[in-house]
Write a structure and sequence with these properties.
The chain is α+β, with helices and mostly antiparallel strands and 75 residues long. The protein contains two helices and five strands.
Length: 75
C-alpha cells in the first residue's frame, strides 16, 4: 500500500516497481524503481488493466499514459 492507501501490485519492469489504481477517483499510482511515486489523474480502468498486461510496462506508459494525463509526484 502507498501513502494514499492504494493497494500496490509489484511488477516486473526495469523502471517501474509497482502499480496501483484508485477506481473511485480514476487515479493511477506508479512507484518507480528509484522509489519515486507519481499519480496520474483521470486514467480509465482499461488503461490500468492494459498496463498490467503489457509486455513492456515502460513502453506502454510512454505510449498511453505519460503526457496524456495530468500527473503529480507524491513521494
Amino acid at each position: 500500500m502507498d501513502d494514499c492507501g492504494v493497494e500496490m501490485i509489484d511488477v516486473s519492469s526495469s523502471n517501474v516497481a509497482a502499480l496501483g489504481y484508485d477506481e473511485a477517483n480514476r487515479i493511477l499510482h506508479v512507484r518507480f524503481a528509484n522509489q519515486m511515486v507519481v499519480i496520474y489523474k483521470g486514467v480509465p480502468m482499461g488503461q490500468f488493466e492494459g498496463l498490467l498486461k503489457a509486455p513492456s510496462i515502460g513502453a506502454y506508459m510512454h505510449r498511453n499514459i505519460r503526457n496524456l494525463y495530468p500527473y503529480k509526484r507524491i513521494e
